[in-house]
Amino acid sequence: MTALEQPVAPSRRLWRNIALGGGLVVLVFTIIFVPVYVTTQQKARSKSREHTCAGFQLPPKEVRPPKYPASSKRPNFIYILVDDQGYDDLRLHHPPGPLHSFIQTPNLDRFFLQGLELTNFYVTPMCSTSRAELLTGRYYPRTGAMYVNTGWDFLNSNETNIAQILGASGYKTSVFGKWHNGRTAGYQPYDLGFQHSVLPTPYIFKDNAMYVNGNTKQTQGWMEEVLMGNIIDYLKKREADDQPFFMYYPSFSVHAGWMRSANDGPRFQRPAPPKYTRKFQNMSLSDDTANLYAMLEYFDDQFGRLLRYLESSKLADNTYIMFSGDNGPALFQHESKPLPRVVRMPSGMQGAKKTVMEGGVRNFLAVRGPGVAQGASSDALLGLLDVSPTLVELAGITQVPQHLPWDGISFANIIQGQAPSQQQQERLLFSMETTCIQEDFVPALGPDRQTLKPQPLLDYNTGGVRGEGFKRCLGVRYKQYKWLADARKSKGSGPSYTAGNASVPTALYKFGDGLHLELPCMEVSKHEPEMLRFLEQSAEAYFAAMLASSHSFEKALFYIGLHGRPGTNIVADGAIERTPARVKVLPMGLSGLLRKGDSASYRIKVVTAGQYEITLYYQSDEAAVFRLWVGPYSKIQDGTAMHLDARLPADPNKRRVETIGTLALPATPPGQSWEVKLEMVQGSGSLRPAIKALDTIFFKRVGAAGPITHYDPNAQEGVRSWKITHGYKNVVGG
Fold first, then answer.
1. Is residue 385 within 8 Å of 138, Cβ to Cβ?
2. How is 299-348 classified by DSSP, letter by letter?
3. Taking CA atoms, which of 179, 314, 463, 473 is between 20 and 30 Å from 542?
4. Using one digit for the tens of pLDDT, what is the confidence trace for 499-549?
5. What range(s) does the Sulfatase N-terminal domain occupy (predicted)?
6. What is the pLDDT of residues 135-162, one digit of tens each?
7. Could you tell me where the beta strands, DSSP code E, fall in 572-711?
């Protein structure tokens, strides 16, 4: 008997007894008793957990010939990225028995069995960063998209994404769903190579106002159903014109959101049509998991619509469909408790969304398409950053001159049934939590007005949030090994280091038999110290490489009048510089400005010259006089740049819209860098800051025609902090 073949732990035996028909009385008893029992047993066995590793291992599947034969024709691609769907959120990844029969994903199960499943596939801990790696094929810290808000959710303009590459090679490109890699002109998909885009208003799951190629279209009905209708209509056109296409479908399911508006109930809900929610009302599940399973089954039905259409068309035999989640599961309060967690995550993986533990970054990727064997599996170490180079190779593109160097490795060979290459077998795959940044993270600028490197805020050991360093946020996979920089939650026994005021243990784990458990039973820190040191040193080298990248840790450049458009939003949390301590960057804006001279600055480029009307969107407890500067930094510094002075009235009860005047702006000369600086020149004398929350500086070109999109902070990530700042009561979640 091996270390992984121990007798089933007592808590597992109790689950098994119930699964064999213990009855309602036992089930009710278990729901009350087991959370306490499991917690007690875990504490009692803390010294002997090396003998209690358990988790569901995927059974072998029958491998059959490809559903669709290989073809010499240029293939189509559909990539589906499901929001917050973890590795375990799939019926196929649950063991048999009544306790795991709640989750039903028949269409996904069928799809997974019809192609290749990559079981050692890694994503990033959060939404925006995963999208950045998928689209660019590069580690997210290189791309500028470092977090989910606070101005760090923009893809840097120097990056080239997969839609631009495929589009330049003759592909039709489209995106339907959640973008989350930029919120203003120059960072939307229709500016970045996607020829057709349908973007719902974020997290509104019914009667959604969707942005179709930048123009608003109010829809009726459930958002994911409407979106799938748009997808199928688009595919019918592609079937008719017989041109190769790339479709990117990042769904909003199964992320939390609202029913119809940002004021429609608490933020942490998972809305689904009544036919799904009613099904789970009387099941012995936590409300959180019941809502998740209802939403997941609803999404599975929408995915089934897509499969049925493709299989009825002539597209299926030449289309690669790829399906993954974007990060680990978002576990709500009740789902994090021992018993509900076992129900939702039978793999036994530790961690969840936001962490670099396996539950936060290990996901799945299923691939169906021409020449792909049915029921095939591979445990090759792969990640989201490998997808773009894979699509490029499958499309037969040999030259990508404008793209910065890939971090990803094409796995076209594995899709085609070949063994992993030597490069794939020897690779290291790095993960970094986004929590080392968070809000009010503003690196100092150098003389060139770019991020200064090195600097204390970016120090590997002592930088980041609260001076706790970036090391604590890292994890490394290599072959069967996993090095974890912060093993406090998993009680690691590797060498410790200091992060802020805390002593933090590291840990080295060695996975096997399909189990990925960051628990003492798989820890080898004491037994393989050389491997631990190798991966620890590799993590530090990784961070140094990220820091050395040309535009890492750089916030967005805002384009005024891009493509002649009449309106441009500068989001206030995109500040590249602000007065420390007295001006604070929020998830969806900034607050502060207490004394004369307090300010915040933004990097801009005026693309279209013209007379621009400038409007501020803010909330304020105190009236004050502000000066808004526009021009080169040197002229702002010496006081010769264009500017407007305006008194902003106080309005503590609502978001105020105040037009402060107009400026005649020439186009920014080539090679120059311009800025917008908002500076307080006269306060009220109060000890309270003038700005409670500023979210947008809006530039409107006078006399210009065309649709204008106003930025809505209330529908973005981090809205909980935004609503609290704006005085909402009884705010939940977000």
1. yes
2. HHHHHHHHHHHHHHSSSGGGEEEEEEESSS----TGGGSHHHHHHH-TT-
3. 179
4. 999 999 999 999 999 999 999 999 999 999 999 999 999 999 999 999 999
5. 75-397
6. 999 999 999 999 999 999 999 999 999 9
7. 577-578, 583-586, 589-592, 599-606, 610-620, 624-632, 642-648, 651-665, 674-682, 691-701
Distance CA 665, CA 394 (A): 46
HEC string of 546-592 equals HHHCCCCCCCCEEEECHHHCCEEEEEHHHCCEECCCCEEEECCEEEE
DSSP secondary structure letters along 401-426: TTSPPPSS---HHHHTTPPPPHHHHH
Amino acid identity of 239?
A: E
CA distance 718 to 734: 6
User: How is 456-509 classified by DSSP, letter by letter?
Assistant: GGG-TTT-SGGG--SGGGEEEEETTEEEES--TTTT--S-EEEETTEEEE-EEE
**CB 410, CB 393: distance < 8 Å:** yes
Give the tokens for residue 188.
């939307």
pTM: 0.91
Lowest mean pLDDT, pick from 34-48, 275-289, 559-573: 34-48
| H/E run at residue 198 | strand 196-200
Convert the pLDDT of each residue in 599-609 to its tens digit. 999 999 999 99
Residue in the block written with tokens 């800025």: 675
